[in-house]
Amino acid sequence: MKYRFLLQVNGQKGNTTADYTETIQNIARQFGISEDDMNINKEYLAANYVDPATIPVIVGIMLIVVLAGIITIYSVYYVSMNQRVREFGKLKAIGATKRQLRQIVLREGMGVALFAIPIGLLIGTVAVKVVLLQFVEHAKDSNVLITEAYKVVAKGEVQLYYWWIYLLAIAVTLCTVYLSLMKPMRMAAKVSEIEAMRYQGGSKRQKSSRKGYQFLNIGRLTKRNLAENKKKSTITIVSMAVTGIFVMMVATVLSCANPMESAKSSIVGQYEISPIVESGNKEHPEYEWAEVQKNNPLNEGLKQQIEELDGVERVDVFTALKVSGGPFEEKIGTEFINGVPEEYAEELKKGITEGNVTYEELKSGDKVILDRALLHWYPDIKVGDKLKLNIHDGDNTFQKEIEVAAIGEYGTGLTNYNCLIMAKEGAEKLTINNSSSYFQVIADKDYDEALEASLQAIVDGSGRLQMRTWKNEYDTWENAIQMTRGACYAFIIILAAISIMNLINTMINSVHVRKKELGMMQAIGMSDRQLMKMLQLEGIFYTVGTLIISIGVGSLAGYPLFLYAKRTGMFDISTYHYPVTAAIIIILTLFVIQMLLAIFIAKSVRKDSLIERIRFSE
Hints:
single chain; alpha+beta; 6-stranded mixed barrel; 59% helix
């Protein structure tokens, strides 16, 4: 008599899913229960406790936000500090200490932060539920868990706001401001009284090397203004370019994540029919692969029945052989040899990246192609290695030496996660049972409602079969990629808004400190149109500099990221697509912003009369 126990373990608040998993495994070991006889309700743990894998992701996102905030705030204060040298010099001359000057800068920054923090918390509180509802509503039909999540969030049955999150937000914000102000505080403390009195704005006093011009035009005047403080211009461009690089890298991955290509990579035909196979299911031992091989529902009669349906062009039969031993000792029986039919010989050849082998050679049953994905777990395997494997064929097991003739990269639809690839004829030489693992049904349409209904009727009538469809795979990938794309671009927009503040601050501050100078130039003949042109040229300089670094470096950095995504199987990415749309959006956004900003600043300057501008004092 066999018994089945349902147990719930005690735990402490704040434990992670890993903690509970370890506790359950420890209890099982105390009673001599193997992992094969134990099933942990991971869905329950995921719904109620913290997955430790999410912690690094959240910390990483927070660090990126903090870094963007530090760059922005530092840029703002660096630009303003250069214009306050005289003020700090006068304070130092009348007795202010270095500590007091640092405290002035720190208290100014913290004062702004204390004013902004409540506004941010209020907006965040309102946005949390709105954003979360939109997210789960978009994905509520993808699986049961998210569908239920939508219901409990909509009804307010789950707590979204915790006091410690507010404290964490406040602490992170104050730390960000403090780190941003460390350099400006040192700059204020180092101000010399004498140098401050002589200071005329711009960079530090150096031996004059300014080149004179017989004729002065708007371009030369703009060049002179930008050269006044090269460090300020560099900081502004770099701080904006960092976000641009990040945008291009993320956009590269998202542009390569094409639902159509991902679906084609994850399933070869329009329909995939396979037997129900489960390992370790004590209630249904007939689902073990060894048992399925003895009475496989994927037989010749089923193949002919499917081929006779309207809309079916052909049925491709793939086989699988369970193996153990060799490098797979730690995971006995968890690897399979994938027998690929001859229709895909050319695709196998194109996917080879190391070594060389023909499909005819793979028919011998002595050679395999290793899918590169397997190297993630077994990096020591290389071309030419001879693996002594145990072939499991039903109740029989025998040893066979198989050579790794080549290494390739293939989609999961072709491999079905079986990373040792052999010709179908070669695999059949190693088995006396029916080792057909799945039928790939090639149809004349990607989606045919009548054909799908007929195939589903065959699957349901058998009771031992399951089916995947190209359309379901496409819909799944489209939902997943859209959600990921929306979340990524929402985050990027926040970073971009922070970075654009640098451009706005730099240009406004630059015009503010030169208000008197601009007034005098207009008094001697500079027109409003020329003033506008000069401001536009300054904005174009920052924009072009940012674009060169953002798109140039971002494009170069994006390709290795694509290779990593392809190697790890992220979104089943297989083909590189340059993010043209993202690059165009970045270019247009920056140019439009700088043009609008130039118009706004020019109008702001013209509000004051020439006399008021000439009398302007910092």
